[in-house]
Amino acid sequence: MAYSIAISPKKDCVVLTIREPVTAASMLRHNQEAHLAGIQQGISRYLVDLRGCRNTDSLTHNLRFAISEMPAGTLDPKARVALLVDRGDRSHDFIEAACQSVGLDVSLFDDLVRAGKHLGIEPHQFPLLTPADVTLAAGAPPPSAAHL
Question: What is the helix (H) or strand (E) element at residue 105, kind and residue range?
Answer without folding.
Answer: strand 105-109
